[in-house]
Specification:
The protein is an alpha/beta fold. The protein is 36% helix and 18% strand. It is built from eleven helices and nine strands. Helix 8 links the parallel strand 7 and strand 8. Helix 2 crosses helix 4. 39% of the residues are buried.
Length: 295
């Protein structure tokens, strides 16, 4: 019997074992398909309290609406999979939306957006053993480094150990590095070519092996500089979407930046969330199809 979104609260209350059962029978696929490209929909923002899209502060708070958007996005041709935390991935498992998809578990969500401890981004999500137990395909972690914050050393060490634990299980880890700093109390990521280059160099060297490490990188402020940035490492790379604005024009400008960067030899695809799930014109299918077309 097909599970509907409206069935999820009762199913979770009465049959919590259904999650493990759905994970055990899920049809899997290789990380990279025949074309060697990846189109992943990201939805791990809510677990860090990052619910805003543009000026809508709680846009991602409605779980039914978010799941409807995710199910639609995952159904579009060329979409390979999804990145999310346990609550969302388990909903999608129960809905049968992850069959034959790449499933990527989000690992550190402790750096709550806007909190005094935001830079102390602890591993409060998936552990490597969870990803292996559930037969998921990869993990993702956020690595923000503040040169003025001694706590960043702890973040680097825990990130390295997570990479080691994933590699021991032969599971890919997608590392999303930034050089970050607080400006007027808010954490800002430096997207200059020099800063992104340094973040790549640091992230690439973490752990006892880089055999299973991927990079998840922003497109720099100067999109033409991405070629130099990507020369910093031979690790396979995907591009993240980030906050691209709330207008159709801003979205089209982002597509053009992605298009240029996707031509680079180490870049294998896109991991994009809010800009595709909540596009300026409201047409999720069209936004996803456009992004797929860039690949």
């Amino acid at each position: 019997m097909t599970t509907r979104i409206s069935d999820l609260p009762t199913l979770r209350a009465r049959h919590p074992e259904a999650v493990a059962e759905a994970a055990a029978r899920r049809a899997r696929r290789p990380l990279l398909g025949a074309g060697g490209r990846l189109m992943i929909i990201a939805a791990d923002h809510p677990a860090r309290g990052a619910l805003a899209v543009g000026d809508r502060q709680l846009a991602m708070a409605n779980r039914v609406d978010l799941l409807e958007r995710l199910v639609l996005a995952l159904s579009r041709p060329g979409v390979d999979g999804v990145l999310a935390t346990a609550d969302i991935l388990e909903d999608l498992l129960l809905l049968g939306a992850l069959e034959g998809k790449v499933v990527m578990g989000s690992m550190n969500r402790g750096g709550i957006a806007g909190a005094a401890f935001e830079m102390d981004d602890r591993f409060t999500g998936y552990r490597p053993q969870d990803i292996a137990r559930l037969r998921f395909d990869a993990g993702k972690l956020l690595l923000r480094i503040d040169y003025a914050d001694p706590g960043s050393l702890t973040t680097l060490e825990t990130t390295a150990r997570a990479i080691d634990a994933m590699a021991e299980r032969e599971l890919p880890t997608f590392v999303e590095p930034f050089l970050s700093r607080r400006i007027d109390g808010k954490v800002r990521n430096d997207l200059s070519p020099a800063a992104v280059t340094r973040s790549v160099a640091i992230a690439s060297g973490l752990g006892g092996t880089s055999a299973y490490t991927w990079l998840k990188l922003p497109v720099t402020d100067d999109a033409d500089a991405m070629a130099r940035v990507c020369e910093t490492s031979t690790l396979p790379t995907v591009l993240l979407g980030g906050d691209i604005g709330t207008t159709v024009q801003a979205q089209e400008a982002a597509y053009e930046k992605w298009r240029k960067a996707l031509r680079l030899p180490t870049v294998h695809g896109l991991v994009v969330g809010r800009s595709l799930l909540y596009p300026a014109d409201g047409d999720v299918a069209a936004a996803v199809d456009t992004a797929v077309g860039l690949l």
